[in-house]
Amino acid sequence: MNKKIMLLLITIVMLSCTFLFPIDKTPAQVPDVGEATQSTPAGFTVARLHPEDGDLQVMLANEAQKALALGQIPVVEFDATWCPPCIAIDAALESRNELMLEAYAGTYLIKLDVDEWGWDNGGFQDFGFDAIPVYFKLDSQGRQTGEVIDGGAWGEDIPENIAPVMGEFFHRE
Question: In Å, how far from its chain's centre is CA 31?
Answer without folding.
Answer: 7
